[in-house]
Design brief:
heterotrimer, A alpha/beta (262), B alpha+beta (854), C alpha/beta (244), A: 262 residues, alpha/beta, globular, B: 854 residues, 6-stranded mixed beta barrel, 27 helices, 21 strands
Chain lengths: 262, 854, 244
């Protein structure tokens, strides 16, 4: 169904989807639903000699179109949390639900499809493919879904325009600055119209000013594409742009606070 | 010094800990090349070395020998005349002949006859102080009973001990001889593995039915008298006997084995090259890390001497470890794959292969291994050194550009490669004798062209991928373009492995079929064949009391006629040739398919008339003869003057053949005895049905075998087809190492780009897409390399066939090894798929942590 | 003055033609002093440090170390200086599979110091950096902060006179950054080492005696306004116009 919808480029037209769309319309007076729920989640790793509690008894919800900043020092469990949210890791205890559906019940194929269609990723090291142009890099997730080459490239160009890189479509990553690379990565995360974007230390490799502009761009994503964003970082300036700010240490959520966005 | 060595060792331990698999693969690559080189050398020296060892062990200080030209030998009185000759310090007459032996199990038919060399000698042989002859003499003196002294390995194979009897089958007769004792390695060294049995001369003369005859006399001249003695021997005996150095027969053996030696040499050098490439592949994968490490050392102020010493140390460790593994592996290969001497040699020479590991073969193997390690390590090391201080050593390679116009160095590389390859093909075509060197140059030239070929392929692939809707294809091409040395490494591996498989497999098959057809073309019709001995006597050169046997056979109602064949080996100056005496009852004196020059009818008539013979092309070329020209042939009755009736192939004997009429041969050899009887049956009587009756009639003779034409052909095919076939077995080693190398390259590639792969898995790339990605990345280059290797291999097969045809005189016909090529390609595709599947499964089964910040 | 850079200029070949890495940069560092330079990616910080270490030759200008012009010294002598007097701490630490003690002892082993002596001095350096308990551990098992301390220990093991550090604290949290700078300050003052640090953000240089801004290859010196240990920085570094 996802593929059919994507290939046509039009919104889903089945009856079930029409009902959902109507319900969403009724609710669009500002209330938002729980998109992601983590409930009393534990995750442990065993190493020779000790057991590491990467995440302990963590409960967290993320709403649609919400920007959540997750701060904490290295080793606090932020990346593990992100991977749990993406369904890349299974929790040892507790549940991780996306739109009400327990990710642990997804088979391998469904989990892949879920990541392909519902999620977008922004990595610290950008993870762009060196030999492909910016447009080709952004088109990759669409090609992976089976979208035809020309349409995929058209949508990629659109996504790059949205992040201000219309003039860099045919540049390979080696010829882009760090900030531009990360914008390409953001465009790649956006191009599939995901519901949730997971950004893992997106400014870790950038200098101060570039980091600022990237954070600014990330801050506009919920309004732009309608995606929620979980932003994992140790950069405290992220707080100014987030709806909610969470702190993590030693696998536990310490504080929740309103961010500067509200 | 010690401190520096400890530091270098610390550096190397660091490499091992960082990339143990790659270091291991580099060592295995070098080890494989060294193993094959060593195994082939040991195998070769196992034949020629064993023969020389036995010769020296018997001859001792003797440097000249008188040798009979025919199986009847010469009178022992001639040998005794040597005692009175001026300048002769010592001499010893010997009777040496090939026979078969059976232990107690032979009586019940439970045991097969073993081929043995019987040596009869007198006590005079001790005066020559040969180790073997002295040992045998001493054993004989101390024996309480019996006559025959056996080597321990022969006794073991026969299942006999001192005091028991052994049955000897000589020239169609059975003789029982009591065993006096056995000698092992303590007395004989490695010659204890030879199948030799010695007894006093009269015993062997009686057993052979050659009273008063010897086959050779060994002579030790007084100091400074060698030339004079030789001249005197020539004058007195040169007309009927061979006067030659003691080592002459060994030279003839080396000549007979030369085709196999030269092809083995080519094979082993290319195997070493394969080892270099495989080691280079592994080191290439490690070069990024090495480069980073060297940049670190340079930045930390390491003196150049230590940086260079570190690189040399690494190469040395690689070389020594590779040599250690290679020597052990080579030893195993030589024991398993090169057991025994090839049948076509044992049929003509009293040779049995022994396992001789000489210091020379070890040193050559070690030297080659160290050189291979340095060759494999140089290029990545140069890259690392050139990387220097400012380099940001992110990815492997980077020395090969895939965009823009060619750099001067790249043009030079391509030009050099094309020149070398083209020149090699031209050289081989114009001068077939240089084929071996030319093939090596061809392979090297192809290797030089590979970087540019990779570049071209990637450009093409890039164009195709640009319009593709397959994410895996786009990503694969982009990845290969950014690490261009990986496709080059895969190309090289594919080329060298496929080349070796096709060129060796194809040439071996062609030679086999040429040799088989040559021998089998003689065995026609539905006849029965009677001769002494077993498979060892495949060339039927052992005469026997054929007249009486023929008379008995002719009395059988189902026998139409019995034709005597008279075949013998004859030593010319540089080769041991096979002389065929064709019976007059044969419709054609020369097999039509073996005729190379001359008229069949005219040659046939001339040979029947007498005074004419046909010679192999190799002999004709060497002696610069033309049709109708006169030539001299040294025979047991003296020098024969004959004319050249036709030029023929070598009838399956690689050193050359001479065809004359049986009557002519009987006259020149001074003996009426045939070496084989062809029993033609009456019309309507199938040979298979008549065989039991014939065998029953001859059973009293015991040592004669009866075979149908089909059985003879099969036997000849099996024995003679062994030429070069041993090389086939050892290509397995190359194949296995190439497979391991490819799998390592593929899995390392996956491991190294795991951050990239993890991020793709994170964003939802499916298992099949990932599998396609990894498969495209590796299969494209590997399969292209294989295809290129197959093409070059088919060309190489053609060139080697031409060379073999010329050097051996066999009508080696080129039959392109298509089936082998296809199966090689299929194996390569299967390996690529397996590697991709393993890599994908591994990547997909682990959590994609590396995509995320820790 | 131990190190003085006079009007250093350097150009690098880039994909779009030569680009200016440094232009007319002058600074000086004395023993017991910490000088910090901050600037965006591509501002020229790494090139500056490599020139100061004698690994890279400037196109123009002088590097004067202990009264001697580095470019006039033979290559061997510059290498010797890097081995014995000038220690470098780079951002990336690649040697993941060595034990900490071997990693820290490496510069001494390269200098042909006897192994036992090298190990002993390595332990002392680790102790000075408060990570002596990590000696038998492999590098890839350390946290970022621990790894940086070990890297500093490796630099100090040769008892240098000059320490050049390129983004030693860039991947660390603020708390850890402060700890690293404190460590460097303590070592600089106690061991009388001249320290020149380059970082992306000025915030990471709190604690330095002098802080300079490098922007597009040019040095901009901040006026010495201090509030305690914090230097007020009137200028934010502009992003370098050249590409990555």
């Amino acid at each position: 169904m996802d593929q059919i919808a994507d290939r046509s480029g039009r919104p889903p037209q089945g009856i079930g989807q029409a009902v959902s769309a109507a319900v969403a319309e009724m609710e669009s007076d500002g209330r938002t639903w729980e998109l992601l729920e983590l409930e009393h989640v534990h995750k442990r790793y065993s190493t020779p000699g000790e057991v590491i509690h990467a995440v302990r008894d963590l409960t967290l919800t993320v709403r649609e179109r919400e920007l959540v900043a997750l701060l904490g020092p290295s080793g606090s469990g932020k990346s593990t949390l992100l991977m749990l949210a993406a369904g890349l890791l299974r929790a040892d205890e507790g549940a991780v639900r996306f739109e009400g559906r327990d990710l642990a019940t997804l088979g391998r194929r469904d989990a892949l499809a879920h990541r392909r269609t519902q999620l977008g990723f922004v990595f610290q090291s950008f993870n762009l493919t060196a030999g492909l142009t910016a447009q080709e890099n952004v088109a990759i997730p669409l090609l992976m879904r089976g979208i035809e080459h020309r349409q995929a490239h058209r949508r990629a160009a659109q996504a790059l325009c949205e992040v201000g890189l219309a003039h860099r479509l045919d540049h390979v990553p080696q010829r882009l600055s760090g900030g531009e690379c990360q914008r390409v990565a953001i465009a790649r995360a956006l191009v599939g119209q995901p519901k949730l974007i997971l950004a893992d230390e997106p400014t870790g490799n950038l200098d101060s000013e570039t980091a600022s502009s990237v954070l600014e761009l990330l801050g506009t994503l919920p309004a732009r594409g309608g995606a929620a964003v979980i932003l994992v970082t140790h950069d405290e300036r992220a707080a100014a742009r987030a709806d909610r700010v969470l702190s993590m240490r030693d696998g536990m959520l310490l504080t929740q606070a309103r961010g500067g966005a509200r | 010094m010690i401190s520096t060595l400890r530091t270098l060792l610390l550096f190397y331990r660091r490499h091992l800990r960082v990339q143990p698999l790659r270091e291991l693969m580099a060592v295995l690559g070098v080890g494989a090349g060294v193993a094959l080189l060593f195994a082939v050398q040991v195998a070769q020296s196992g034949i020629t070395g064993a023969f020389d060892q036995v010769t020296r062990g018997v001859a001792g200080r003797a440097s000249i020998e008188l040798a009979a030209r025919g199986p009847e030998g010469f009178s022992v009185r001639s040998a005794q005349a040597l005692a009175r000759m001026h300048g002769v310090r010592a001499y010893a007459p010997l009777l040496t002949l090939q026979a078969q032996a059976l232990g107690p199990g032979g009586a019940t038919g439970a045991q097969r006859p073993q081929a043995i060399t019987l040596v009869g000698a007198t006590e005079q042989v001790s005066a020559l102080h040969g180790r073997l002859s002295t040992a045998f003499e001493r054993a004989e003196q101390h024996a309480k009973a019996g006559f025959l002294i056996l080597t321990s390995s022969l006794a073991q194979r026969l299942g006999v001990r001192a005091g028991e009897n052994v049955t000897v089958l000589i020239d169609g007769r059975r003789e029982e001889i009591a065993i006096a004792g056995t000698l092992g390695t303590r007395a004989l060294g490695s010659a204890a593995g030879a199948a030799i049995a010695a007894a006093p001369l009269p015993i062997i003369q009686a057993a052979a039915g050659l009273p008063g005859r010897v086959s050779r006399a060994l002579i030790e001249p007084q100091r400074g008298q060698g030339a004079k003695v030789r001249a005197e021997l020539e004058r007195r005996f040169g007309a009927r006997l061979e006067v030659r150095p003691v080592s002459a027969e060994g030279t003839l053996l080396a000549r007979a084995a030369s085709a196999e030696s030269e092809v083995s040499l080519l094979f082993s050098v290319i195997s070493l090259l394969a080892g270099v490439i495989l080691a280079y592949n592994a080191l290439l994968l490690a070069s990024g890390q090495r480069r980073r490490f060297i940049a670190y050392l340079i930045e930390a102020g390491t003196p150049d001497s230590i940086v260079v010493a570190s690189l040399i140390f690494d190469a040395l460790i690689l070389g020594l470890a590779g040599c250690a593994i290679g020597l052990a592996g080579g030893e195993a290969i030589s024991v398993v794959a090169y057991r025994g001497a090839p049948g076509y040699l044992t049929a003509a020479f009293p040779v049995s292969a022994q396992h001789i590991v000489s210091a020379q073969s070890i040193l050559i193997a070690i030297g080659s291994g160290i050189a291979a390690a340095f060759a494999a390590a140089v290029l990545p090391a140069i890259g690392a050194l050139r990387g220097g201080v400012l380099a940001v050593p992110d990815a492997i390679g980077g020395s090969l550009s895939l965009t823009g116009s060619l750099r001067a160095s790249e043009r030079l590389l391509l030009g050099g490669g094309l020149l070398l390859s083209g020149g090699a093909v031209l050289l081989a075509s114009l001068a077939p004798s240089s084929t071996i060197a030319a093939l090596l140059a061809l392979v090297l030239g192809i290797m030089l062209c590979l970087p540019m070929l990779a570049r071209g392929l990637l450009l093409l692939a890039g164009r195709a991928a640009r319009r593709a809707s397959d994410a895996a294809a786009k990503l694969a091409v982009a990845e290969l373009a950014s690490t261009p040395t990986r496709p080059v490494a895969l190309l090289a591996t594919g080329v060298i492995a496929a080349f070796l498989m096709v060129v060796i497999g194809g040439s071996v098959a062609d030679v086999k079929s040429a040799v088989r057809s040559g021998a089998a073309s003689l065995i026609t019709g539905d006849s029965l064949w009677v001769r002494p001995g077993g498979a060892q006597n495949v060339y039927t050169t052992q005469p026997f009391a054929s007249a009486a046997v023929a008379a008995r056979l002719e009395r059988l109602p189902l026998v139409a006629s019995v034709q005597p064949w008279r075949d013998a080996f004859l030593d010319l100056e540089r080769r041991r040739v096979w002389v065929l005496g064709v019976p007059s009852g044969e419709s054609e004196q020369i097999v039509p398919s073996e005729l190379l020059e001359g008229s069949l009818a005219v040659a046939d008539a001339r040979i029947r008339a007498g005074g004419w013979a046909a010679l192999s092309e190799t002999i004709v070329r060497e002696e610069h003869l033309h049709l109708g020209e006169a030539f001299r042939l040294p025979t047991p009755t003296g020098e024969a003057h004959l004319r050249l009736a036709a030029t023929i192939s070598n009838y399956g004997w690689l050193s050359g053949a001479v065809v004359m009429s049986a009557g002519e041969e009987a006259r020149l050899w001074g003996s009426p005895e045939a070496s084989e009887l062809q029993v033609r049956l009456r019309r309507g009587v199938p040979a298979a049905a008549a065989k039991p009756a014939i065998a029953a009639l001859l059973r009293g003779d015991g040592a004669l075998s009866v075979q149908t034409s089909a059985e003879r052909r099969a036997e000849a095919g099996a024995v003679l087809g062994g030429t070069l076939s041993r090389l086939n077995d050892t290509t397995i080693v190359v194949l296995i190492t190439a497979i391991a190398s490819v799998l390592t390259l593929m899995l390392s590639a996956v491991w190294q780009s795991r951050a990239r792969i993890d991020s793709l898995i994170s964003i939802g790339m499916s298992f099949t897409q990932l599998l396609r990605l990894i498969f495209y990345e590796c299969a494209g280059a590997l399969l292209t390399g294989c295809a290129l290797g197959i093409g070059v291999g088919l060309l190489g097969q053609y060139l080697i066939d031409g060379w073999l045809a010329q050097s051996t005189g066999s009508p080696v016909r080129y039959a392109p090894a298509w089936q082998l090529s296809l199966s090689t390609l299929a194996i390569a595709a299967a390996i690529a798929l397996a590697g991709a599947a393993i890599g994908t499964a591994r990547a997909a089964s682990t959590q994609p942590r590396t995509a995320f910040a820790t | 003055m131990l190190l003085r850079l006079d009007q250093i200029s350097k150009r690098h070949a880039g994909p779009r033609g030569p680009r200016v890495a440094l232009e007319g940069v002058s600074l000086q560092v004395d023993r017991g002093q910490i000088v910090g330079i901050y600037g965006a990616s591509g501002a020229g910080k790494s090139s500056l440090l490599r020139i100061a270490a004698g690994m890279l030759m400037p196109d123009s200008g002088d590097v004067i170390y202990d009264g001697r012009r580095l470019c006039e010294l033979p290559g061997r002598e510059r290498v010797r200086l890097r081995r014995r007097e000038i220690a470098c701490v780079w951002e990336r630490c690649e040697e993941s599979r060595l034990r900490v003690i071997d990693h820290v002892a490496m510069p001494l082993l390269i200098d042909r110091v006897e192994h036992r002596t090298a190990q002993r001095r390595a332990k002392e350096a680790l102790l000075a950096c408060e990570v002596d308990h990590l000696a038998p551990v492999e590098l890839d098992q350390l946290s970022e902060g621990e790894r940086q301390r070990v890297t500093i220990a490796r630099a100090l093991v040769i008892e240098p006179r000059l320490l050049l550090a390129d983004s030693p604290a860039s991947r660390l949290s603020i708390v850890e950054q402060e700890a690293i700078i404190s460590l460097l300050r303590a070592l600089s003052h106690e061991a009388n080492v001249a320290v020149l640090i380059a970082e992306r953000d000025a915030q990471a240089l709190i604690g330095a005696d002098t802080v300079l801004c490098l922007s597009e290859g040019r040095l901009i010196q901040a006026p010495a306004e201090r509030e305690g240990n914090v230097v007020a920085l009137p200028l934010r570094p502009r992003r370098a116009s050249s590409r990555r």
